[in-house]
Design brief:
This protein is mainly beta and about 190 residues long. About 15% of the residues lie in helices and about 35% in strands. It is globular and about 45 Å long.
């Protein structure tokens, strides 16, 4: 963020873009940045469903292995063939993951495994541009997802390690620590 010179903004409930001004709290070591929003910005984002603290994964939710879904937008828009416009649909990629010894999340990504859709087997897009996307997790026992649970925010995607066929992310515990520090520093 310190080297970024462009404007950062968001779409408010009324469809207008608004600048995201103010100070970002950055952890270079963890490759994360957060921003505390003033009340007026929170109000303009009332169309967004915010996560509660209960929606954040705990260490026991991740265990030795967990099932993960990485949610994000592609790095570039796709041209629509039915009209003159661009579209950037939300994309989700899922596979099993684990917590590395350094605390980072590691989720397998094998493009050849693809997925099943209404048109049969599909080949997922390369996950370029997914940095900053949410990683949601569900508890598993070995390679079986445990039923009767809801997904929890496990972390934030940081990079696609193509030769290793995996996506690495920051653990939500690191993100939470950064948020607590930012809140304490704002008082």
């Amino acid at each position: 963020m310190e080297r970024f010179d462009g404007a950062v903004g968001y779409f408010a409930f009324d469809g207008w873009t608004r600048p995201l001004a103010g100070e970002f709290h950055v952890s270079e070591l963890d490759d994360l940045a957060i921003k505390l929003l003033p009340d007026k910005d929170v109000e303009s984002l009332r169309h967004v469903n915010f996560l509660d603290e209960d929606d954040l994964a705990q260490p026991e939710d991740l265990g030795d292995i967990f099932y993960a879904s990485i949610v994000g937008y592609p790095s570039s828009a796709a041209k629509r063939h039915d009209r003159i416009s661009l579209e950037t649909p939300l994309e989700i990629m899922s596979h099993f993951g684990e917590v590395e010894p350094n605390g980072r999340l590691s989720i397998a990504f094998n493009k050849k495994e693809g997925g099943l859709g209404s048109e049969g087997h599909t080949i997922p897009k390369d996950p370029f541009g997914k940095s900053g996307g949410a990683i949601f997790s569900m508890r598993s026992s070995g390679r079986v997802v445990l039923p009767g649970q809801s997904a929890k925010l496990a972390g934030i995607a940081l990079e696609w390690r193509k030769p290793e066929k995996r996506i690495v992310g920051a653990n939500v515990l690191i993100l939470k620590k950064l948020m607590v520090g930012a809140i304490a520093g704002s008082r």
